[in-house]
Amino acid sequence: MDPGLDRIVTVPNVITLARTICIPLFLWLVLGTDRQTASAILLAVLGATDWVDGFVARRFHQVSTVGKVIDPVADRILVVAAVIAITIHGAVPVWFGAATLAREVVVSGAVLLLASLGARRIDVLWVGKAGTFALMFAYPAFLLSYGTAAWQGPIRVVAWVTGLIGLTLEWIVAAAYLPVARNALVEGRSARTKEATP
Length: 198
Hints:
The protein is mostly helical. 78% of the residues lie in helices and 0% in strands. The chain is globular, with a radius of gyration of 19 Å.
């Protein structure tokens, strides 16, 4: 195994940590101070920089085991926190927020279950990345468009279009992972059996 994988203090991990630390700031802005525009901008920046830590890790050969764990965890925390906060704020309907959260719960639960059963690691599908990107664009837009000003109307239309596309893609991907997960489980168990065989 590459000894570099054991590193903890790397630039990508610091970026992931910085993004995670900003989540409480976002929650405080949207729920504590009702600074809607500032919280929308911060959320958009956090969502748009989702790819940065992974890019830096690969580009500068700083991939680590810790990074592989904390990066997706940080992303899930951001999504869940944003959806709950914006739904409480009233910028999105409860059904839309619930549908987004339900997908996160289903996928996260499935990942944990598969890992406990010995499945090999499943690569993220590009359609899933597209869905996540669309939702991380839609939620700040929903937040920014929440109000009665004339300029907010067009933004809300864009938010609904990207939001519905993103949510649809996310659920399609969740279904598409079923055969992939089954194969990953079979291959993972087979590999473990071979390793255990003297």
